[in-house]
Amino acid sequence: MLYRVIILTTLAFLGACAATPGTTTDASVAAASEEKPTTAAPVSEVRVVPERPFPDDSLYPLLVAEFALRRNNYKLALENYREQAMQLRDPGVSAHTTRLAQFMHEDDIAIETSQLWVELEPEQLEARLTLANLLARKGRSPEALPHMVALQRAGGTANFSALAHGFDKLSAAQQQALMQAIRDLRTEFPDSTQVMICQALLLEETDEIQLALKQLQAVFDVDPEQLQAIVLEVKLRQDIDQQDGLYDRIIAHLEDQPGNNRLRMQYARLLTRTDLAEARRQFQILLDQSPRDPDLLFSMALIQREMDDLEAANDKLEKLVSLGERTSEAHYYLGKIAEQQRRFRDAVMHYMLVAPGRDFVTATRRIASLLLSAGRLDEMSQYFIRLRGQYPQAQAQLYAIEATSLIDAEFDDASLKILNQALAEIPEDTSLQYMRSMVWEKQNDLALMEADLRAILEREPDNSTVLNALGYTLANRTSRYAEAEQLIARALELQPNEPAILDSMGWVKFHLGEHEEALKYLRQAYDAFPDPEVAAHLGEVLWVSGDSSGALAIWNSALSNNPDHELVVEAMERLGARLASD
What we know:
The protein is mainly α. It contains 32 helices and two strands.
């Protein structure tokens, strides 16, 4: 039996839908706004693979995949195509599967099948471009680089700037290797603006802003109108507060091409950092052309809210809801506006319509806080019961939010009831058990607090947070100083520069009578984190050691930022200290 794999019109369409910028200009605005290229270039023509023998057992799954595709059952189609791509090792099937995976945003599958495609057709530029961009988007720059180099050498256009994505997640050795590779490519491709921009982006990642700006000047020497470089230059100059003529290049470009809405959008977004009024004007120009565009409506709403034009912002957000676009984000900000206007019932209603996602946890916390402030404890409890039933996978997090809200509102008994219930259902959840231990401590039940912390340490003996919490409590609330020192010393081994642990060690050393050692640790903690609690401890040790002026200076500094801070005031009153102004 013979077969012929044909890239059908349907898949050509899918490829076009999943297009990635194929030129420097197309990529410019996205990259400069920290949006990374995502998928492969569109297919420009139908390609027929020569006939060859076809295994009998592949006919049926391929037919199933094809009919599933025609019926829009993309999941089934992808499953079958992926299986056959690996089995047949055919470049046409691999390409077919890759484009479908991209269309479905199944990046891991797309990487797998595009790797096979490159292996089978190493000279195929679309295969290289697809794989390189997918790997870069996943932050796998070291793997993407060779494919981009091969693409560039073959006469294609590689989007080298995408290699900066995920740079901070690479090891130090990988970062150095990537930067050196880009330096080498500058020699090999001296006129490639994409290589220059990539180098500028990597220099930005390492906080070498002036060197990055120098690289962008090299871009302008080659192409004075390179949009990605123009937008990136503004962003870098904003970072170092270099305002002189900041937007001149963008303004000149928009005067020459007033219809370049992608650049105008970037200009408007950049303006939000320096000039909200002008940002609003630019967004209005865009909105006049596309009054139902959800992204423009949302951006304008945020600007109007920031400028305290709450009614206008509210109108834009309500329009988004009526259009069914970005509804969750719209309800979140409608809730914030309602809070600002003291319409608390409306705020709760909007927050309840925020779906799981970026704003969900904050919205849930605000609901709890507002209900508790209004004395509606039972209503809040019922709300969380409904949420846990609706999102069982987030059960632990929802219990934690409810308990934290109760603790913050000083409903300690209610918080213990919820934490006991939570730990009965999720007995080994460290966060919940740690939270309960802190409530026990607050209620002066140190035995139960210690029992919870010891239980965690049995499971996680190297949990530095728990070691420190138990050690500090023993040092602060009991006379078991030697035991406390052992616990804190172990925590310090695990996290030698953590200010909270350094403070604990200083405090236990003070109780052991080792004042010089105590001061060493407390000064180190205070230098790293000048928190009022650390200031209270450091001031007390200085005072007891005879340095009253040093103690008063520390306390005065703490109170200037945190007037009437309980720990500082308590230490001063207990020691009979008075500031000069008292």
